[in-house]
Amino acid sequence: MQISELVLDKYKLTENEVNHTMSAYSPMTLKANQFFLKEGDICNYIGFVKEGLLRSYFYDDHANEIITEFYPEGSLVISFDSFNNRVPSRENIKSIVDSELMIIKYEKQKELYEMIPAWNQICKDLADMISQEMIERASRFQTMSATERYRLFCKENPTIRQRATLGHIASYLGIDIATLSRIRKKK
């Protein structure tokens, strides 16, 4: 899905507003294992993944990488707290494979808020949708077994399963790789 389709499907923007919105975005290419955002940096743009796969993660007290999110095609990539509050990011966002994104810089985002009345609502709705997905994921972690989480992950994310490493998937599911290997053998 293209950015313009996301906007046109739900919001009544004029053709001029859509064109202005689209012109605010610019392309970004990331090679595999290249950072979109490093911990400690301020997130200066929002990305829309056209092609590829990224992950967000932080390190725990034992230097283990804890993956908090995958960003496949059609995903918005952002560190909300860092972008909105202009504070250093507590997470890293990095490409897993070569990726193509469309990005909008913080300053352009602010311009759209001023120029397009519906833009504030569009962004609020997208943030609400992402927040709801995060709440649902947290709920699953509390109520589902490791096997159930893995099966649901495979069902909902077949392309991620094919492109991410087992270590990435195990980290995202909150299990160790040995447990994930046992679960996969039982299939």
Give the structure's gist in a few sentences.
The chain has nine helices and eight strands.
Radius of gyration, Cα only, in angstroms? 18 Å
Measured by DSSP, the beta-strand proportion falls in: 15-25%
Please state the second-level CATH architecture of the domain at 3-106: Sandwich
What's the level 1 CATH class of the domain at 3-106?
Mainly Beta
CATH topology of the domain at 3-106: Jelly Rolls
Give the integer mean of the pLDDT values: 91
Provide the helix percentage: 40-55%
Describe this structure in words.
By secondary structure, the protein is α+β, with helices and mostly antiparallel strands. The chain has a domain at 3-106: Sandwich (Jelly Rolls), CATH 2.60.120. The protein contains 9 helices and 8 strands. It has helices at residues 3-10, 15-23, 80-85, 106-115, 119-143, 146-156, 158-163, 166-173, 177-186, and strands spanning 26-30, 35-37, 45-51, 54-59, 65-71, 76-77, 92-95, 99-105. Strands 1-8-3-6 form a 4-stranded antiparallel beta sheet. The longest helix has 25 residues, at 119-143.
Write out key terms for the chains shown.
about 190 residues; Jelly Rolls; four-stranded antiparallel β-sheet; 9 helices; 8 strands
How is the secondary structure organized here?
Layout lengths: L2 H8 L4 H9 L2 E5 L4 E3 L7 E7 L2 E6 L5 E7 L4 E2 L2 H6 L6 E4 L3 E7 H10 L3 H25 L2 H11 L1 H6 L2 H8 L3 H10 L1
Antiparallel strand pairs: 1-8, 2-7, 3-6, 3-8, 4-5, 4-7
Helix pairs in contact: 8-9
